[in-house]
Amino acid sequence: MSSSTSSSRYKFPFMAYDIQEQLMDAMYSALDQKKVAIVESPTGTGKSLSIICATIQWIQDFHTNELKRLTRQLQTLNKEIERLDADSKVSSDWIELQDKKSMVCRQKEVIVKQLNAFDVKNQRNKALVDRRSNSLVRHSLVLKHKNVSKKLRTDTNCGDELSACDNETDEDFVDYCSDEEVMDEKVSAEESETFVRPKIYYASRTHSQLSQFIREIQRTTYSRGDTPLRAVPLGSRNNYCINDRVLRLNNNHLINEKCIELQNSSNSQTKCQFFKKSVMNELKDEVLADVLDIEDINKLGKGVKACPYYSTRLAIPEAEIVIMPYNVLLHSPTRQSYGIDLVDSVVVVDEAHNLMETIHNIHSIELKGSHVMDALTQLNAYLARYKTRLSARNAMHIKQIVFILNVFSKHFKTSAQNDCQSVCERVEFLIRLGIENLNLFQILDYCQKSQIARKLFGFSKRQQSVANDIKPDKAVNGTTAFLAKMKAKSIELQSIASNTSTPEEEVKVYGSPLYLIQEFLRALVNSNSNAKIITKYDKNSIRECCVKYILLNPFSQFKDIVSECRSVVLCGGTMKPFDEYIDHLFTPLGITSDRLLTFSCGHVIPDSHLLAVALGMGPNGKTLNYTFQNRTNNSMIEETGKTVVNMCAVIPDGIVCFFPSYELEDIYYKSWQKCGIIKSIESKGKTVFREPRKASMVHTILSDYNRAITGTNNRGALLLCVVGGKMSEGINFSDHLGRGVIVVGLPYANKQSLELTQKMQYLDSLKPNAGNVFYENLCLKAVNQSIGRAIRHKNDFAVIILLDNRYTNRQNIRQNLPDWIRARLLCVDSFPKAFSSIRQFFHNKQK
């Protein structure tokens, strides 16, 4: 059903469906009534476009109504002043009347100031509209290439990563003396009368999702109106930097520190050529004049030679909509560094199904024995090299860091020797280590302002190069001998992996292990009482021991956002159960039911476009039950394989099959290869692809998968994926790419995990059985995200198959599936019945 009023009120670019109209109404009401809202709209129902139209229409209406209100108030106050003047002429109590008049005049001054701000804003809008129409730079650099897809920056040669640091220089030498010597990185945007309030702060998980949101704004008439829509996309330096000297470092930590160093340099030859306030203000105006994405802004920045990163930050005070990744919104220090003021504003968090996990991950950090040992090696070599040049204060701070690292090393050795894992509070951990009396704040301040981690990285890289040049048969001593010893131990000084990885896994790279150590110490000085420190040992290698700081209560980090904003809206395609967000995020913050608003809608597709099947039995009559004890049985693996082969015979085009983990997918694939299942699948015309562990390979695999389906003489493909993996979120398997989605089992987390155990115990302390509810929800939310990869628009159709008899037998599991899937769910324990239903579904689609 479509609504005839959609395009008129909300300027929806198409004739909106009823559920889209309902979603826009719910969003508008939440913002207008200062509500905290949880909104669920299935993927493929136009959720983003509905959010955009509702929020922009509300903010425009708000400013219009606010202007009318202030104008009426001014008229009322002027009449009151006239009355008081008239009364004072005839009344004997003129002193009291003058006091009243003074009070009314002060009220009038406030109103006049607010009205003047509207006038300034209108004049500013006229200038921005004129710039949008007449900017030659923007027309030549952006509009001309609007339909051309390019990289955000030119490729750099990894071999040149540190070409600026090939020879030893005093860049590595710490010469920090006082807090005042290093400029703060923050560029303070002027809080002028042009400051726009309230703002809409929109946050999502990835930059690709943010770019998609901007493209959706560009589809609406709001982006092309007589009044410019001031939308500013924020990003990291890694996204926005256009200085090749900085980008070649290819590491976020190093890029950040190098950027700060270059902008503060007093040497005109080394100072960043793009950090010029006048041209940055020009670029800021270009950003405000039109709705641009990161790629557009980078092109403009290169054209006018202005820094896009700081230009977008300068634009924040005047912006109406600020578009940002999760980490900027959810991390208070980052938010403050950007100058983001949430007071009386609106926050919209999209893809919020993983919000609590994201908050947990942002504020948790793991420190491994390898990080500690490598940092110790680097610092000792650094002290040996510069001991005669370091000031007493610098030497003292570095020795304090070395002392802390030695304490951590001893802690790992003790844990490994005692064969124990431990969990303790933050203060208890500091006491165990014996560093409770150290001023960690002062040490962290020194690390930040001296940039010791970046300098240590450069020093270690060069020293490693020296060690590599040492001939084995040459007699060496002193520092050279020490460096040769470093090489012999094969210590990797350039990059430190954040976790143990196989050759197929992605390796997370840090410029120096000292960055991680700083982050861990920063977490330790956090006064949050609802956090734990977990120590895990490895008897075979101290380098594999680790300590992890974990946050147990997400609401503590969400408190400022909820308390400062006029309204907070959490949106997603799979948000149920709502109680999880209410109990863990809002109720602890004092949000009562009268301020809460929840909304959920169905899908735009007709019932005939989806068949959902919960199947508990395979083609040979074996029960499909993927508990930990059963899932690796050879008979279960073979029965699953035969089930998939049968599905490949009746489901056309592309099928996506999700496993609970990479390990289980690997076991099944290798077993299927040995027993001939893979050949049977290929005999049905399906080419088999596997989700890669390297993120860099995802695009290649998806392209090959697409070609196998759409290419000449190809009948389709089967893609083996992982729940919670790289293809379970943000990937569009629409139409022929996802005619079938199969989920093998239930991806329950390891209940023996110390981290999960602590989380569940904490939740149980707040509410009985809350830990188990959280455990179940964690699993089903991951399933819901995976099955949401199919059915991406109103004309799409697909079959969803849930393999496990727990789907058929347990009502609590089915209850947590999305409403639009549960309403169409067929629970069967008979394979022939399921097979027949699926075959008939696609037969009907061919008519």
Automatic annotation (TrEMBL):
Residues 60-87 form a coiled coil. One of its GO terms (molecular function) is hydrolase activity, acting on acid anhydrides, in phosphorus-containing anhydrides. The keyword Isomerase applies. Its cofactor is [4Fe-4S] cluster. CDD domains: SF2_C_XPD. It comes from the Eukaryota. GO terms for cellular component: nucleus. Belongs to the DEAD box helicase family. DEAH subfamily. DDX11/CHL1 sub-subfamily. This is Helicase ATP-binding domain-containing protein.
